[in-house]
Specification:
By secondary structure, the protein is an alpha+beta fold. The protein contains 9 helices and 10 strands. A hairpin with a 2-residue loop joins strand 5 and strand 6. Helix 2 runs antiparallel to helix 9. It is extended and about 80 Å long. It starts with a helix and ends with a helix.
Length: about 350
């Protein structure tokens, strides 16, 4: 009796949905539907692919490597290869204007931000501004949880500790004079990171620095998190734009991240032709693990940055669909007429 009662309780309701009695429609696929369908899909994919490919080809990109492994005539970063706190410069000439707005990126290669242990080496409660986790960081942050004096590190973890810290200044060379090109670093991070995911702790006596009392900066940082931007007090702490950009992990070992925009003053329409010098504070070491460092100047389109793969993928799939429609048409015609003759 008890077993029968249990089975009754576990039995789904006698409704059309739970008993799978809802009316359904199943298409009857015939050659007259499948062959034109493949043909239409193929033509649509080819049209989209052509639009994507042409748009990508029109995006302008200037790329320069400044790792310094080899001596180049356009930069002197070779002298900084095994040093930190070194300044070098990359020279380049624009023969064609890069239409604005221009986006300036830094890029790293052979750098696995997608490694699981690296990705979880952080304390999300810290980064959300919860000061109770300042004194006792999450164990996932090991070995960057406490310093050698057993003081808590904020922000803790490998991810924050490895923050990219090369800095850049761009100059246009006009008549033998260096004219600095203004960078705009506002709003370069994801909106969700800045407004939802990350939070600064509550100010203590109106001071962000006091909220971090009793903690120390990450081992590899030259200054604490509340002094990342001395020129803009609102761009400090966990809401610093460069920090937010770095903390969003890249999926592939070769990646680039947005550093600044060039969209102000006389450069609102882009970077004009001429000679330029990019001065770099070379601080971030990559040679030890076989990595490289690059800079990119690029504009964007309605489809984003330069990406030929997407257009080529659409063209290939569209071509395959048209090819398959022709194959099916030949097979259908052959066997249909063969049946009629018999």
């Amino acid at each position: 009796m008890k077993k029968q009662k249990t089975e009754t309780l576990n039995r789904p309701d006698n409704t059309a949905f739970t008993q799978q009695r809802l009316p359904a429609w199943q298409p009857m696929l015939s050659a007259g539907i499948v062959i034109p369908g493949f043909l239409i899909i193929g033509l649509a994919f080819i049209g989209i692919g052509v639009a994507l490919f042409v748009t990508s080809q029109n995006i302008q990109v200037l790329e320069r490597d400044y790792t310094g492994v080899e001596q180049n005539s356009d930069n002197n970063c070779f002298q900084c290869l095994n040093r930190t706190n070194c300044v070098c410069a990359v020279q380049f000439n624009l023969t064609q204007q890069i239409e604005g707005p221009v986006f300036f990126y830094y890029g790293l290669s052979n750098y696995f931000q997608n490694h699981r242990k690296y990705g979880v080496s952080r304390d999300d409660y810290q980064l959300s501004g919860d000061t109770s986790y300042f004194t006792e960081p999450d164990e996932d942050c090991i070995p960057y949880r406490y310093d050698s004096s057993d003081r808590p590190i904020v922000p803790c973890g490998s991810k924050a500790n490895s923050l990219f810290n090369d800095t850049f200044r761009l100059y246009r060379l006009v008549g033998g004079q260096k004219k600095q090109v203004p960078f705009d670093g506002k709003g370069i991070a994801w909106w969700t990171d800045y407004n939802l995911k990350y939070r600064n702790p509550t100010l203590v006596d109106g001071s962000l620095a006091k909220a971090f009392n009793g903690t120390v900066k990450p081992v590899n940082w030259p200054k604490p998190v509340y002094e990342l931007d001395t020129s803009d007090p609102s761009n400090n702490g966990f809401l610093n734009q460069d920090f937010l950009v770095w903390m969003r992990r890249a999926a592939l070992p070769g990646f680039r991240k947005l550093y600044r925009r060039i969209s102000e003053g006389e450069y609102a329409d882009g970077l004009p032709t001429g000679n330029y010098s990019l001065e770099i504070d070379y601080n971030y070491p990559v040679h030890a693990f076989g990595g490289s460092k690059k800079v990119f100047f690029s504009n964007v389109s309605w489809m984003g940055g330069k990406n030929q793969f997407l257009g080529i993928a659409y063209l290939v799939v569209g071509s395959l669909c048209i090819f398959m429609s022709l194959v099916m048409l030949i097979v259908y015609a052959k066997y249909r007429f063969a049946d009629e003759d018999s």
